[in-house]
Amino acid sequence: QLHLAESGGGLVQPGGSLRLSCAASGFTLDDYAIAWFRQAPGKERERVSCTHYSGDTTIYAYSGKDRFTISRDNAKNTVYLQMDSLEPEDTAVYYCAARMYLCSLRDHEYDIWGQGTPVTVSS
Question: Most buried among 31, 58, 95, 111, by the most CB within 10 A?
Answer without folding.
Answer: 95
